[in-house]
Amino acid sequence: MEVNEVLPPTRYALSFTTGALLAREAAVLAPLRDGLHNWEQVRERAVAENLLQARTRATALRRARETVKRLAVLTDDEVMLVVEAAATERAHVMWAAACRRYLLIGEFAEEVLRERFLLLAPTVTYDDFDSFVRAKSLWHDELAQLKESTLNKLRSNVFRMLHEAELLSRAGHITPALLSGRVLTALNARTPSEVRFFPTRQVEPSEVAQ
Hints:
54% of the residues lie in helices and 0% in strands.
């Protein structure tokens, strides 16, 4: 490869139109991992036994598949945290999982949500998301070619995740995240730290209020 050759950007995965944060679903499926060989078996059992209480098999399949996709990007310790955590901790872990699984969500969290928080901007709006997507579409054809209906669904789902993770109010106001010590430790174990996905100034676990 020539020194000045520019590699094409990684394509964004845009399949996050099912469910939202999926924290409740994760709480159901995460404990099954210990007794089964892999996440595929967890998905199959979830669908076969309708563990997520879906109304149709198709819905059960979509929700189980998407929940497993996000759980699969977590470490074993993080999966145990999902199993044992309080609801707020679980929501924070699943927001990190969504950011890790979907580069577009992770970049929005870092470049818009966290940046606006650090700059003391009080809100994040649909317009902010649309501006972010327009800027990224200059380098990503998959964004430039999105149908308006698909973009609306993606935008709506990202904001539902933010609401469910209690990082954004229904009125669009940023809610600073108070990360527990064990969640903060898990996020800081990644390089770079995944604290960057959250509206918080916390850095070290010792800074968390006990």
